[in-house]
């Protein structure tokens, strides 16, 4: 999902919630984590699998059907 969409998801979550994020470009996740500091927990994980294992709800956006 895009950066702005992820920001909107984070901002609409309860303050007690945790958002687990993964991207092949870890630096993007780290920047997001810093920018969202103070809204509540943003947890950068090392793989999509780890995110799925940790989160009660999963949202995945891919460029096209072949990536599913």
Automatic annotation (TrEMBL):
Source organism superkingdom = Eukaryota
GO function terms (MF aspect): NADP binding
Supply the name of the protein: 6-phosphogluconate dehydrogenase NADP-binding domain-containing protein
């Amino acid at each position: 999902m895009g950066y702005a969409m992820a920001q909107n998801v984070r901002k609409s979550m309860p303050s007690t919630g945790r958002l687990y994020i993964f991207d092949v470009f870890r630096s993007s996740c780290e920047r997001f984590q810093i920018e969202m500091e103070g809204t509540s927990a943003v947890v950068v994980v090392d793989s999509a699998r780890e995110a799925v294992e940790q989160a009660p709800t999963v949202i995945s956006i891919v460029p096209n059907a072949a990536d599913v």
